[in-house]
Fold this sequence. Notes:
- About 70% of the residues lie in helices and about 0% in strands.
- It is an all-alpha fold.
Amino acid sequence: RSNATFALGRVAEQRQVSAPIVRALGAALEDREARVRAGATWALAKAADKSQFTAEVMQALGDGLKDSARDVRRYAAAAMEAVAKRSEDPAWVIKRLVAALGDDRRDVRYNAAVALGRVAQKREVSASAVDVLGDALNDGKA
């Protein structure tokens, strides 16, 4: 199953994937195996710019930022930029990315900071989100 999710991600890098595949990848985010969840998250991140996401898939990606598996959190953080493009409520995305800046893992924090910066370039963000990024410079975790 995990190989299938990563293979779908490779396909998604090249072209749009169908809504049923996006839904199947969204369902795989609930799998008991971390590698399957990570593969599904990575594939959805690759598909994000070319495919249609449902609110449920966007919510599952947001929830992935709190997953117990580091790779799921890392890929979810990277996918949040694309989720922000489709979200009617960018504050929802920003709030989750700001929370991910406190993750124990450096790569998760990095992906969250990059995604937050890109979202901020494309959308108006609150001063508090910018302040949180500034605080992250001094948190000692970087």
